[in-house]
Write a structure and sequence with these properties.
Blueprint: H1 7-18, H2 21-28, H3 32-46, E1 51-54, E2 57-60, H4 62-82, E3 95-101, H5 105-120, E4 124-130, H6 137-140, E5 146-149, E6 160-167, E7 169-174, H7 186-191, E8 193-197, H8 206-213, E9 219-224, H9 227-235, E10 240-244, E11 255-259, E12 267-273, H10 281-296
Parallel strand pairs: 3-4, 3-5, 8-9, 8-10
Antiparallel strand pairs: 1-2, 5-12, 6-12, 7-10, 7-11
Length: 298
């Protein structure tokens, strides 16, 4: 079955509003003969005469009267869809955004982000969920509005990506730890007892590769799933946690942090979202809030 010509809806709306072929022709800037042909097509499409002669005037059929309001609403809705989005009134915006974030992001950037959002749009609620893996399915399926993290090989190619900041790994120990009182060397760092952070349970990473290039190997005594857990253990023991500097700023309060005494690759933390939300005004506004908060805390 062929699809009907949806342009006929606009013609029908004007015809039913004017109740006259001549009046509809003037409004649509068509010739009377072109308007008559359009009415003939509408009659054929709907299976109803729509407008019938009564003396010198045309009057609507019961079917036309039934359609009049429905058609007018359809035309209004169609025009609204095709217009640019109106400027948002953030004071009246009511919406919940779900953000899937890497370990430490909420603790460091969450308070300022919540404060910014609440000051401008008090009806907006932020729902933070933990990022257990790099699977892009939550963004693809619309379960998540925004995500932060390091782009990897498993990141879906269609996702929009914007860099937020660069980060580097540092070492962190409790106040008074022996490493906080000596000049740090690669061998002294490697000789300590270490906490390794891995969501997948791995026991090697870029730091171990950098040490291996120097002929060194560190002793990993425990593996945990997040940076906050690693820092909590280091705070209460002589273990060494190696964590991203900017991601863990608030979590490291009251602890001794130090640059690693050897070169390691920096990481780029990015903002990710699905293209379906790219032009959404409220989503664009939230992305700007996240960028501003991350820039302010550099």
């Amino acid at each position: 079955m062929s699809r009907p010509d949806l342009n006929l809806l606009f013609t029908l709306d004007v015809l039913l509003a004017e109740g006259s072929v001549a009046g509809a022709a003037r409004r649509l800037r068509l010739s009377p003969s072109a308007m008559s042909r359009a009415l003939a097509r509408l009659r054929e499409t709907t299976g109803d005469p729509l407008l019938v002669r009564a003396g010198r005037a045309l009057v609507p059929t019961p079917r036309a009267i039934e359609l009049r309001e429905r058609v007018a609403q359809l035309v209004q809705d169609s025009e609204a869809v095709l217009r640019p989005a109106e400027k948002l009134n953030f004071a009246q915006l009511v919406r919940t955004f779900t953000l899937r974030t890497s370990e430490g992001f909420v603790e460091n950037f969450g308070p300022d982000l919540i404060a910014r959002v609440g000051a401008e749009a008090p009806g907006v609620r932020l729902c933070f969920v933990q990022k257990a893996d790099k699977d892009s399915k939550p963004l693809r399926d619309g379960l998540v509005d925004l995500e932060t993290g390091v782009v990897g090989q498993t990141t879906a190619p269609e996702l929009r990506v914007q860099a937020l900041f660069r980060d580097r790994f540092i070492g962190v120990v409790r106040i008074g730890h022996p490493l906080s009182q000596v000049e740090l060397t690669p061998s002294r760092y490697a000789a300590g007892r270490h906490i390794y952070v891995s969501r997948q349970g791995r026991d090697k990473g870029p730091i171990d590769e950098a040490l291996a290039a120097l002929g060194l190997e560190r002793k990993i005594v425990t593996i945990v799933g997040g940076f906050s857990t690693a820092l909590a253990l280091a705070r209460a023991s002589d273990l060494i946690a190696s964590v991203p500097e900017r991601h863990t700023g608030n979590l490291r309060a009251g602890m001794h942090g130090f640059p690693l005494p050897f070169a390691t690759p920096e990481i780029t933390v990015s903002l990710l979202w699905h293209p379906r939300l790219d032009a959404d005004p409220a989503h664009r506004w939230l992305r700007a809030q996240v960028r501003d908060v991350c820039a302010a805390l550099r």
